[in-house]
Amino acid sequence: MQMSQKHKITGKYFDQSVQELESYCWPPNQSLDPYQSCSDDGSNGVHHSVQNLEQYCTLESSSSMQNSSSTASFSPYGSPVSQPNYSYPSDLHHSPDNTCGSPVSGSCVTDNEHDLKHMISQLETAMLGTDSDNFDIHAITASGGATEVSIEAERWKYMVEMIARGDLKEMLCACAKAIDNNDMYMADCLMKQLRQMVSVSGEPMQRVGAYMLEGLVARLASSGSSIYKALRCKEPASAELLSYMHILYEICPYFKFGYMSANGAIVEAMKEESRVHIIDFQISQGSQWLTLIHALSARPGGPPSIRITGIDDPTSAYARGGGLEIVGQRLCKLAESCKVPFEFHAAAISGTEVQLENLGIQPGEAIAVNFAMMLHHMPDESVGTQNHRDRLLRLVKSLSPKVVTLVEQEANTNTAPFLLRFLETMNHYLAIFESIEVSLPREHKERINVEQHCLARDIVNIIACEGSERVERHELLGKWRSRFIMAGFTPCPLSSFVNATIKTLLQSYCDKYTLEEIGGALYLGWMNQAIIASCAWRC
Fold this sequence. Notes:
With about 550 residues, the protein is of the alpha/beta class. About 45% of the residues lie in helices and about 10% in strands. It is built from 19 helices and twelve strands. The strands form two sheets. Strands 1, 4, 5, 6, 7, 8, 9, 10, 11 and 12 form a ten-stranded mixed sheet that branches. Strand 10 (about 515-520) and strand 11 form a beta hairpin.
């Protein structure tokens, strides 16, 4: 295991993101104002014809495309493909042999130099008309300075050069920039090239690029409350989805890191308590508490009585194949085998609906609250007048808990302007996809399913949606720290025992995973890029 030498939790990362965006998708004479992106109200002014969108749409046809007879699916043998009622041009192939990497070779983008010259000619015609040979652009620029025509010519020249370079990251950022500027012609040109470069069965950047492109397509398809209707992928059967989630849980240490670090903080806080009440705001399958019950069963002097309140949105019942009673039965059975007094209280409601009366608080119990990869789903002040993110923290503070644990992805996708959010998402998920490939090789039959059903929809939601429809709203730990302190909490540094436990866990994984402790919090990363953070708080 490597120890990380750098970490992106300071404001410097925002400046680095701006510089990276500028290097990817703007000619040298243009600068980026990161605040000139669309706001959370989704008012980016983007409109696109259904016919053009059908060329690129690879997901289930949305209600906004109901007049089209096209269908769509994710192909396990190449990039996501559409089957509209017309044929693709010959150069827009979706061959399983399309496994070129990024940067992509020129042959992946244009067949030969003649094609590139032809493209330049088409662009000149589009900009200057058929009489461009008689058009003295130098005379115009000399007499009128940097005219609109010369700027446009330079911009298209830059795009053609960029396509020739075949850098997938650069072209994705340029396409996002074009969409953000409502430049549909540029977006169309770039999407045609990008479709040939991405592949869900390719290298990590190609695979992330495939889903980033889906997000851009969905962003064009609609806006506001209807945008997510463009993303109706066929859901796998619940048993299959649970299987994919379990595979991801086993092959990468991200979930185990979060669960083990949180459990360690809870065990230490409750070592003298006889009655323990754990409130889990997103209990999912309840897997986190299996190891905790085992640990408390072996406590010197005997185990405490444990009561778990499991909160979960009813929509999660699909992945479980049933309601929260399945979780309760599983945990009760384990507790009985470990001779631990146990009680389960189910609260099948969304976090935005949770009130004090839903928590079943009883006198004399020591309370632990667990926020494991849940709070980023709560809308805050940037979304609407109801700031549920901070409301829940104040509600929890009123319970006077012994400990509150927080586990969240270390990414800035909540209030960042669209272009910076796009780049942040690309870099964050690229690191995850790279780490997946270490355990599930590219040719592994389950890898596409794991990435598609466990990660892809999050990527598309971050890129495509705005306002209340964008539910994946991650924040850096520095921002979470400010929220907890504002709610009245103080940091509870994770102990050296927890740190050592995580180090032991990582010995079973690739040595490219990194672990870093900063200010009592732990950061798990891939090749020095922080992916997930864990910390604890007390009243």
